[in-house]
Amino acid sequence: MARLLVIGGGIAGTAAALALDKAGQEVAVYEAHPDSAEDIGAFLTLASNGLRALAQLDATPAVTALGFPLTTMRLVDAEGSEVARAPLGEAGDPRLRYRCLRRGELNAALQAEAARRGIGVVHGARLASVESGAEGVTAHFTDGSTATGDLLLGADGLNSTVRRVTAPAALPRYAGQRVFYGYTPHVPAAGADEAGCITMIRGSAAAFGHTTSPDGETYWFARVTADAPLTADEIAHATPSRWRDLLVPLLRKDPTPAADIVAATTAPVLVTNATEMPNGTPWRSGRTLLIGDAAHAASPATGQGASMALEDAVILAKCLRDDPDTESALSHYETLRRPRVEHNTTVSGNISRGVHTPPPRAPGNAPPARPDEELTRQLEWTAALR
Predict the structure, then answer these.
(1) Residue 122: helix, strand or coil by DSSP?
(2) How would you list the strands of the sheet with 127-132, edge to edge?
(3) Tens digits of per-residue pLDDT, 216-241?
(4) At what angle do helices 48-56 and 371-381 cross, to 10 degrees?
(5) What is the 8-class DSSP label of residue 96?
(6) For burial by CB atoms within 10 Å, which of 44, 115, 141, 198 has the most?
(7) Would you say 153 and 287 are in contact if contact means Cβ atoms under 8 Å apart?
(8) Residues pairing with 74 in the sheet
C-alpha cells in the first residue's frame, strides 16, 4: 500500500482522497485554509460527467443534499428572445441530473465525507517546500512540521504552491474576461426562472446567466470581456456596490432581465478574473503530480472545472490501483487525461475570447470526434472503481 500526500483540501484534493481511499491507498490531506469554508461565495454547476465520477466515489448522497437540480437550459439573445432550449443531464438516471450549488458547500460536504471515512484532513497546513528523493517525498510546512509519503499530489488550485516549487516556469494566464457572481431573493418577475431551468443570455456587452432556486433566490453570473485583468488590489479594495454599479449600465444596453437582476442584488458582488493554465504545462516532477486546477485550470465558460477535478480523482485512483508501478500509473493517467482536459481548456478559453473551436480529432484517420463521444470513452473507463 502506498502512502499519498494530498496538498489542498478543495474539490480536487478531497475527491482524490476519497477515490484513493476506496482504491486501497493510504492517504492524508493537507489544507492551508483553517477550515472548510474557502471560497464559500461563488456557485458552480456539476454536469453529468462530474456526477458520474461522484457516484464512483460513493459520495452522491452527500452532495445531492445540497443545492438544487437543473434540468433545462434556455439560450436567449440580446433582444430577449429565446433562440434555443435543451434538456440537461442524462435521461433515466436522477443521479446524473445537473446540480447547482455553492462551491464552499460542495467543498465542505466532500471534506465531511472524508472525515466520516476516517481520512485525515489537516487544516492550517501551508506548504513551504517539497523534497523529492528515491525513497519518498517530503512536504515541509510553514509551521515547521513535515509529512513524508510515496507520492505527493498538488491539488492546491490555480495558484498552486506545489506547481511553483516543481515547475516554476508554468504560470497561469488571463483568459480575457472578468467574471462576476451574485445572488438576490428580490428578482423581478421577468427574471425568475422556471423550476430547474438556467437561462444563458448572449448579451451585446456581456454574457449573462441566471437560475432561480426552489426557495426563490436567483443565482447569477456575468462574463465581461476586458483587455486586462483586475489587479488583486482592485478586487480587495472595491466598495460593496462597485461591481453592481459597473455592470448595470452595461447590461441596460439590452432589453433582457439581466440589468434588473443585478440591480436587485443587495449583497456584495463577487468578482474574479477568467484565468487558465496553458496547455502543455508539466504535471509531473519526481514524486509529485499536479491535478485539478493546479494542472489544468480553464476559464469558467464551459462550467466544467469541478467536474473535471472529480474525473481526475477517479481515473488517478484507478491507474494507481491497476497499473504495475507508480511510474506506469502516472504515465497512464496523463495519457488518459491530458487530451480531454486540454480540449476543455481550449474550448473554454475560446468561448471567453469569442473564438470558434474546431472539434477534436480522433486518433488515426478517423473523422473528428464529437465531444459527447469523447466524454463517453473517458467515462466508460471510470465506471468500475471498486
Answers:
(1) strand
(2) 127-132, 137-141, 146-149
(3) 999 999 999 999 999 999 999 999 89
(4) 0
(5) G
(6) 44
(7) no
(8) 85, 199
* Cell reading at 130: 517539497
Cα separation of 348 and 274, whole Å? 10
Using DSSP bridges, classify how beta strands 270-276 and 197-202 pair: parallel, antiparallel or unpaired. unpaired
- Assess contact for 141 and 126: CB atoms under 8 A: yes
Cβ neighbors of 351 (< 8 A, separation 6 or more) are 299, 301, 302, 357
Torsion-angle region of residue 124: left (phi > 0), alpha (psi -120 to 50) or beta? left
pLDDT band at 368; cut points 50, 70, 90: very low
- Rounded CA-CA distance 29/10 in Å is 10
What was the pLDDT predicted at 308? 97
Phi, psi dihedrals of residue 7, rounded to the nearest 5°: -95, 110
What's the CA gap between 239 and 332, in Å, rounded?
48
Cα–chain-centroid distance for residue 350? 17
pLDDT tens sequence across 137-191: 999 999 999 999 999 999 999 999 999 999 999 999 999 999 999 999 988 777 7
